[in-house]
Amino acid sequence: MPIKIPLHLPAKEILEKENIFIMDDTRASRQDIRPLNILILNLMPEKEKTERQLLRLLGNTPLQVNITFLKTATYNSKNTSQYHLEEFYQTFSQVKEKRYDGMIITGAPIELMEFEEVEYWDEMREILDWTKENVTSALHICWGAQAALYHHYGIGKYVLPKKCSGVFNHVVLDETEKLLRGFDDEFPAPHSRNTNISIKELEEHPELKILSVSDEAGPLIISSKDGARIMITGHLEYEATTLAEEYGRDRSRGIEIQVPEYYFPDNNPEKKPANRWRSHAHLFFSNWLNYYVYQETPFEWN
Fold first, then answer.
1. How, if at all, do strands 100-105 and 135-141 pair?
2. 142 catalytically annotated
3. Can you give the residue range of the structural domain that contains 81?
4. pLDDT tens figures, 195-238
5. Which of 8, 70, 105, 292 measures 20 to 30 Å from 50, CA to CA?
6. For this structure, is 204 an active site residue?
7. pLDDT at residue 28 in the model
8. Active site includes 84?
């Protein structure tokens, strides 16, 4: 089944070339199907790249999905054209009277700041509170996961001695968990962050459970026990070259950064990296959409 996006969204042409089933507004309006309505709060600087990464995964399931992109009103992105933001994005004031089957809150390159120092933190808190009554299941990625853990559960982050960057091995801790159905016992996933979450604090919180963890990168997938909030500290949505692009960007800025671990062949940045996490990324998003959104959301919101 397709994913429905705006007719002229730049990602449309790229995804169609990858054989992702895309449907624009015109065709979708002729179908009498109850689609899932998914809201994406995109906090990443290069929003078009993140759109493509997420739409690729959301568009490869048997469910029809309507996408609404959300931007912050209290901070204006400097890396995405104003035309793109005005054409394809809404602000919270435009959507807060609606209800959504699912929501994705992305990461943001602000993790070294205290949450209260973030320019749009008050707006973020309002959105996180709003999800409790207006979203069936919210998926939080990287900084979005840290923000949710801090706001909802009082669990903070701590700065790492060096950046956690690379593709690390993870183990599944609960084989009966629906979100991880079909997963291998061990699987790779990319990480790219300077902070981490205490496993001890997660384990001791009565409302949370850790679903997957890495000896080197720490917890990857955390869930509230009711499935209403899923937190993923890594980036299963990343493309094969994303970590390489981040590494090159940091080096060009004069930042002392180690080569991403277990990523480049022979640890050589001159060699092309392979995507070793793609199948688990598709499976993760498919499971989330099916078990925590589609199976749980009402046919009609009252």
1. parallel
2. yes
3. 3-158+195-238+278-294
4. 999 999 999 999 999 999 999 999 999 999 999 999 999 999 99
5. 292
6. no
7. 46
8. no
